[in-house]
Amino acid sequence: MNRRDFLLASAAAVPGLRADEPVGTGFIGTGNRGSYLLRATLAQPGVKVVAVCDIKPDRLDKAATAAGRDQPATFTDYRRMLERKDIGAVFIASPCDLHVEMAIAALQAGKHVYCEKPAGITPESIGRLVRVAKASRTVYQVGQQMRADAKLQKTIAKIHEGIAGKLIMAKAQRHAGEDLDHEGPSKDWFFNAQRSGDVIVEMAVHNLDECNWAIGSRPDRAGGFGGALLWKDDPPGRTNMDGYTLSYDYANGVKLSFTQVFFHPNRLPNGGQYLHVYGVLGAVDVGGGMFYPSARGAAPVALLTPEERQAKPQNDAHIAGFLECVRTGSKPTTGIEVAATAALTAILGREAIYQKKVVTWQDLGVEI
Ligand SMILES: NC(=O)c1ccc[n+]([C@@H]2O[C@H](COP(=O)([O-])OP(=O)(O)OC[C@H]3O[C@@H](n4cnc5c(N)ncnc54)[C@H](O)[C@@H]3O)[C@@H](O)[C@H]2O)c1
Q: Is the model's pTM score more than 0.85?
């Protein structure tokens, strides 16, 4: 089957969509991330951008121009946009505190949903989203694109096949050399933990999801410490942390040590992001695609071929995967279970730090 035949055949699976009809898409929030999602979607076959929505006129104009090929309608009220019958799939890239209400409204309007991470920033709202998404006949996919990375998929499959033996511990970090731009376009929400969910939920949700994926479980409890350690009240009114350290105890017994900082000097070694997973037979450097056996004198094992290692990252694979689910009705790699578990893992850590005590998964009170 060539690509066109595949698209035509699979399009038949979308309720109400003729086989030769493109998927009509709408975009809510066309800032930094939303612009990328829009560009990447325009590059996919069999898609039409029907509408774009943002409350900031400059962002809306830019998006309408970027999607000029399809002459999209423009909206400032996303609920009005959701009334359009010619929109089958909605992309949401608004500030984090709006994800749940927008995703629920889109699902209830019968749309397929690609919503940026985190799924939500409070346990209660995530619980509501889980109930609606599970009852929905349309696709919900969260924007945790690491799960679509072919190198990570292969390396983590090797862990699951047992290359390191029974897993016992993991160590991961997300270290940056500087704070997010204090005068940047997201300053109206990013530094406010009530809107972003704090940096652990807004950013480290990617890393913590990678930990859940590689470890093959989710945490039972967490304890940790952190706060605004360097950037105190800077920018003024800031409630986001800039550094913390956490310990997670996983349901399958694995212990995870995780740190995030915004003051790792660029020339200090061991910065950036990594995940090391330790088993009884050795350790895997997940990002590096290498296994290091514990046996004395045993050589490291490359888990990727040289071609796989050099392959260009498929940045848009997560969007292509979503559109395929929309067309075929197949299950997304980052559906509601993965999305909710990742967000709750981050929230568990955040609450342990905020409440200065060990917090358990049961304390969050969400059934997934
Ligand atoms: N997957 C990733 O790697 C990744 C990367 C960056 C950001 N993100 C996520 O994407 C989301 C947006 O981040 P960003 O960096 O683009 O922020 P941003 O501030 O650049 O963009 C947010 C946009 O949402 C708009 N908006 C706010 N309220 C709205 C409303 N009620 N209706 C319509 N539009 C509204 C704002 O005007 C703005 O244009 C965040 O949740 C962030 O965590 C994900």
A: yes
